[in-house]
Amino acid sequence: MIKSLPTPAVLGATAALGVLGTFLLDLALLAPAALAIGVAAACVAAVLLTAPADGESRALRRGLVAPTSLVLAVVVGLLTAVIADLWLIEPVAYALGALAGSLTGPLLYRRMATTLALAFVAVAVAGALAFALTALVLVGTGVDPGYTFGRMLSYGSEPNSVVTVINSATTYYLSAVAVAIGFKMKLFNIGVDGQYRLAALLAAAAGAAWALPPVLHQIAIILVAVAVGGFWAGIAGYLKVARGVSEVISTIMLNAIATGITAYLLSTDRLAVNIGSNNIGTAPIPESGWIPGIPTEFMGAGRPIFGLTLLAVAVGVGYWALLNRTRFGFDLRATGQSASAAEASGVNVRRMVVASMVISGMVAGLVGMPQLLGDSHYYALDFPVGLGFTGIAIALLGRNHPVGIAFAALFWAWLNQSSQILDIDGIPKEIAVVTQATIVLTVVVVYELVHRWGRRYEQQQVGRELGRVKVATS
Amino acid sequence: MSSTRSDGGAAPPAVELRGITKRFPGVVANHDINITVAPGTVHAIVGENGAGKSTLMKTLYGMHRPDEGEILIGGQPVQLHTPSDAIRHGIGMVHQHFMLADNLTVLENVVLGAERLHGIGARARRRVTELSDQYGLGVRPDRLMEDLGVGDRQRVEILKVLYRGARTIILDEPTAVLVPQEVDELFGNLRELKREGLTVIFISHKLDEVLSVADTITVIRRGTTVATVDPAGTTARELATLMVGGQLPVPELRESTVTSDTALRLEGLRVEAADGRAVVDGVSLDIHRGEIVGIAGVEGNGQAELIEAIMGMRPVAAGRITLDGTPITGWRTRAVREAGIGYVPEDRHRHGVLLESPLWENRILGHQTRRPNARGPWIDRAGARADTERIVAEFDVRTPGIDVNADALSGGNQQKLIVGREMSGDPKVVLAAHPTRGVDVGAQAAIWDHLRAARARGLAVLLVSADLDELIGMSDTLHVILRGRLVAQADPATVTSEELGSAMTGAALDASSAAAAAGGAPEPGQPGASTEDEAAR
């Protein structure tokens, strides 16, 4: 086995191979196929050029990490190419895609930890299981699963569907991050639902009542929502540390109370006005408080993407940075892992409980904002409900990881959107719910198995490593 | 390697382990273990911490299955899938940590989970009394468990096992929680069991005890059986050599480095339990720079509470704590740590490490607010990682890297990381609770070395330990704690573990111990000079 070359050299070689291969194959094959083969060739080259790290089993590295990075690289390459294709001519777009893919693959193979590769495989296995189960249900009800999935795929990739998917994924994402912050502390914030509804109602009312210049207006509305969400969740945090009330119970109760309060406030005697013939809601927010959408004409869609999608991205980055880069995040994760060890290390655990509940609630307050500021501009009886519960499922599916949650939210939204077409064909669209439910279950189970296996693998790895050192030194 | 005692001859061995190999997710596994236990004997299995004794006993008790090899009971090969299989084959186990319900009586504890055998009424009571008399355990069925001492609790555990019909009893480190006097009583019980034809497998790493009670000794080193010897023909020194493949480290301090500056002063410290009872009562002591102050006491006499109170993890009901002249009574844990107190906790899994976090994050734990781990509100990853590398190198933490999770390391290596971490950042005082508990001999010697070196640099150490040799060897000044009060002071240069053991049980409480409690701290500059240990005799 040759020795490992330095990473830049390998990357250079594989990138050249991938791009050149794609370019040449493009002459004979369809562009996507050419790209896939080119990127795959680059990945294989990288595998051959890389010696496995000391002490790691080569079989595992090659059998697990290599295929995972290959698949991910091809996906990255294809996505880059398809997106670039919207602006550029095809050969250039696909060359770019090949470059991205052939850089991603080898880099992943070299850098990706075995456990992360395992996580990807776990998700893939869980997804396959979920779809297999759904297919089984379809066959049981006498519907052709191939046809069904084909319809969903084609409808789900229409430009308008893509926009809808991104928009609902945005709200799902915010909701799931709110839940995930609690999960990281081993707190189960079931109350995201009540928190965002109350926050959206009061923010909408405030936004309609105040006349402020643009920018300030939006900021003021969002701050109201954040404050209300944080306050509402903070009640549960306070009850937990002061009175020992389980946050599960108190947030469920607070949901019910929030429903009552919104119903009370959403009356024409109080905050609401008549909207249309059959609906009441808060007075519309003046245009100075709206947030413009991201135009989507370039991809041929008829409506814009919520401007606040960018806020969701920022929340994701902030969530990641808070957890992994700040002292506060360290204390939070430590408390979640072992409250007793955190206490002994000087963390004020009670304060952390309240703080994390409040932060979770603040993010929950944002959940209604993309819809409120980007689309409806008022809070009415038909404002979306239940997003808080969807968030729990998505946080579970995304394993509380900012990137994992993003994929989970997109996937969830895509299932919801693409199944809409099925009604036309007389196939019950609730089939998507079956897939959603089974994938949450399978991901949780498969992930737990992989997690255990990964821990054992690491322990064995350490044992082997130390055993070798012992032999070497004795 | 294996041998049977030559007395019986005809009778098949009570238990025979042939070529047991257990590949275990962890650092230590068993490989090719061969042990033959003759019926009606006390068979000791010795080995240092982490040698694989517990793994082996869990195999024998059906808690997990061996990857290779076979287990024979009474000459018949058996498959033990669960502990209840083992019990059915007459094998019972007394764990190191008792599994008893405090709010139940002795009888209720014994029948709990074995109601089918003799019911829960008069028949069960008769059986308990019968067994207690037959084996001379002296257990009274109607006493409440919470009223019993450690020795009595252990006898209840043995009775529980007998009640379930065990003919072979595994005792896992039974003397770890006992004072020397209780150990003698236990050995009396074991001889009684042996006389009645039962077989005892006795796991220990205390060689003197093993030599005095066992009929046969099997030594385990690094997961395999290295020798089976007759205690009559061997010495503790030879056993130690077999056990560690070299010399056992001895805890000792050389010249005194004690200064007259008081680093930590406790005055009349009182800590209360939730019900208002004092668990630490009027404790006053001074720890000087360069001094190690040892606290001896049977576990549960307020040592843990004392340390937690100093750390700010438990409210102080009365009294004052002063660090370098600064009163720190009632400060929060973080402030106490930042003021310069390091803490090696008694239970490292509960209080010392995050098992599922990498080593470098564990380096940060407890030092979140300080360099090199943090810069303002941000975690300084590069700084923390570099410093973790330093600790791993300086404290000889055996690990392939600083990115592995803490639970991939053996207990000894986790402990070295904790000790290294707590000695970082120039602490003024380190509170070390059982710093070498459950660590192997090599790590033990390393931790002692580091304590000695830090002491020479002027560190003040409060040392709590259940290992009396460690306490006597490593302390400049030694206090005995009983029911939350410092009842005696001993000179580590002259006191023996037996004397210390008596003082710990309160057997020798008299006027001078009252004086010790009232007199408080020793004269600065003359630690350990007191002769109040006469009280202990």
What is the oligomer described by this structure?
Answer: heterodimer
Q: What portion of residues of chain A belong to β-strands?
A: under 5%
Q: Which pair of chains has the greatest number of interface residues, and how are they split between the two chains?
A: A-B, 33 and 43 residues
The tally of helices of chain B reads 19
Number of strands of chain B: 22
- Overall pLDDT confidence of chain A: 85
Overview of the molecule:
The complex is a heterodimer of chains A (474) and B (537). Chain A has 2 domains: 7-112, no CATH class; 161-426, ABC transporter involved in vitamin B12 uptake, BtuC. Chain A has 18 helices and 2 strands. Chain A has helices at 7-26, 31-49, 58-85, 90-111, 114-140, 145-156, 159-184, 192-209, 216-243, 247-265, 309-325, 327-337, 339-344, 349-366, 369-376, 387-397, 402-418, 431-473, and strands at residues 272-275, 279-282. In chain A, 49% of the residues are buried. Chain B has 537 residues and is α/β, with parallel strands linked by helices. Chain B has 2 domains: 15-244, Rossmann fold; 262-340 and 426-536, Rossmann fold (3-Layer(aba) Sandwich), CATH 3.40.50.300. Chain B has 19 helices and 22 strands. Chain B starts with 14 loop residues before the first strand and ends in an 18-residue tail after the last helix. The interface between A and B is large, with 33 and 43 residues.
Please summarize what this structure is.
The complex is a heterodimer of chains A (about 475) and B (about 525). Chain A contains 18 helices and two strands.
